[in-house]
UniProtKB/TrEMBL annotation:
InterPro entries attached to this UniProt entry: Beta_prop_At2g24240, BTB/POZ_dom, SKP1/BTB/POZ_sf, T1-type_BTB, WD40/YVTN_repeat-like_dom_sf
Pathway(s) this gene product operates in, as recorded in its UniProt entry: Protein modification; protein ubiquitination
CDD domains in the record: BTB_POZ_KCTD-like
Domain BTB: residue ranges: 6-76
GO BP terms in the entry: protein homooligomerization
Stored SUPFAM superfamilies: POZ domain (SSF54695), Tricorn protease domain 2 (SSF69322)
Protein name, UniProt field: BTB domain-containing protein
A Pfam family: BTB_2
Domain of life: Eukaryota
Length: 442
């Protein structure tokens, strides 16, 4: 990098600090400090020997120590919010975040904080944001939290029940809601995550007419498409597709006879195969339907259903499903937290069940049990069951750790993003934040 080890002197709010250009180079070219060096990281000529910065000196000392050591130590007399504000000014917010919690690892997660929500009633969903924040859906409201876990203005959907929430980026979220008969509303909207302002509304067009509909499960693709399960009063049952940029509907996969798409519990876009996983699960329907849709050819390229199977077999109790592209398989889970796997390369559609995870069977069930949920992140598989989340790793998906706290009741939903895991409890209207501690500096 051609870093010159010149000594640099700062006067920050009346306090003098002295450091080297080597230390300041750790801030990166796009930071406040990068502007005082040339392309070879040599101090630009024409500057005085001392740089005056009219900012908080106590926070500057913490930030400078972070650049020197790679470790973040926040004294008790400095509010974290104040430090984050100062780090934002210097262009070092990402440095502070990465030092505060490490790269996500399910086997090293520690409970960082629990937050009690404000809305009454059971939670519908929790979704992790890309920058470490989250949003929580309760009935007809969505509560949005930034990465500092401060709540923004809540989004109220005028008594329309929220079905799903998804982040487009750190500034925008999509909310899907139920249609109210006679009102001509429902569907999906794009909202500002910071102000709650409605920025766009997504419509369904059927036979050249705009239709009112119920929007359900959501998913997003890397080429800026939004997918949602849709139910209308005419023939608008299926999966709608919208352009994130224009907000216009660009495709619709109609539900074939004898199958279920419009009632889907879960959508998952598969980047490798350019297909969409659609799962409609018990008890929303009497039978379970899992399929892969290829929108390019308007084909259902893979499908499985337990329709016609004896009611006593485990397939009847599939509660969640997730596609695992690297293994060309789909993982499912039943109410005993047994994992099952289906080979996407086979059309037989049989489930290979694994009972090694049946650790909860026979234990006392909570007063309000919740159906298990699945998530896949960086080669680790996560499954919620009652009041804990299990982590599975390795080629045989061995159980490697469990995450559990002492109160809050069953976990009704969880989500991973921004190097955090968020778990929403059903009974006490509380959600937990799990983080990976940063690695030690050797």
């Amino acid at each position: 990098m051609g870093i010159q080890k010149d000594r640099v002197r700062f006067n920050v709010g009346g306090r003098i600090f002295e450091t080297s250009s080597t230390t300041l180079a750790n801030a990166g070219r796009n930071s406040f400090f990068g502007a005082i060096f040339d392309e070879n990281w040599t101090l630009q000529s024409g500057h005085s020997d001392e740089y005056f910065i009219d900012r908080n000196p106590d926070c500057f000392a913490v930030i400078l120590d972070l650049l020197r050591t790679g470790e973040l130590y926040i004294p008790a007399n400095i509010p974290e919010k104040l430090l984050y504000r100062e780090a934002l000014f210097y262009g070092l917010l990402d440095h502070v975040r990465s030092a505060k919690w490490g790269q996500f690892d399910g086997n090293r997660l520690r409970l960082s904080k629990s937050i009690t929500g404000q809305a009454p009633g059971d939670g519908t969903a929790i979704r992790a944001g890309p920058d470490g924040g989250c949003c929580v859906a309760h009935g007809s409201m969505v509560h949005v939290y930034d990465w500092m876990l401060e709540e923004h203005a809540p989004i109220t959907l005028d008594y329309q029940r929220v079905n799903d929430v998804g982040w487009i980026d750190s500034q925008n979220i999509v909310i899907s809601v139920c249609e109210r008969l006679g009102r001509g509303d429902g569907g999906m909207g794009l909202f500002s995550s910071s102000t709650g302002e409605l920025r766009d509304k997504f419509q369904v067009n059927h036979e050249n007419q705009v239709k009112s509909f119920t929007a359900g499960a959501l998913s997003f693709s890397s080429d800026y498409k939004i997918f949602s399960s849709c139910k209308g009063r005419s023939n608008e049952y299926g999966i709608g597709v919208w352009d994130q940029v224009t907000g216009k509907q660009i495709d619709f996969f109609y539900e074939p006879p004898g199958w279920s798409l419009g009632d889907a519990d879960k959508l998952q876009w598969l980047h490798g195969s350019n297909c969409l996983l659609v799962a409609t699960l018990f008890p929303r329907k009497d039978n379970c339907y899992i399929s892969l849709l290829d929108f390019r050819d308007k084909k259902m390229v893979w499908s499985w259903s337990d329709g016609g199977a004896p009611i006593t077999v485990d397939e009847k109790r599939v509660r969640d499903a997730i596609a695992m592209e690297e293994n060309s398989s789909i993982c499912v889970v039943n109410e005993f937290e047994d994992l099952g796997f289906m080979d996407l390369r086979s059309t037989a559609g049989t489930i290979r069940w694994s009972s090694r995870s049946r650790l909860m069977k026979g234990n006392n069930m909570p007063d309000e049990p919740c159906y298990p949920k699945l998530a896949l992140h960086e080669g680790q598989l996560f499954s919620s069951m009652n009041d804990c989340i299990s982590v599975f790793c390795g080629p045989e998906w061995a159980l490697t750790s469990r995450l559990r706290r002492s109160y809050g009741g069953s976990i009704c939903d969880f989500s991973i993003g921004g190097d955090r895991l968020f778990a929403l409890h059903s009974e006490d209207n509380v959600f937990d934040i799990w983080e990976t501690p940063p690695p030690p500096i050797i």
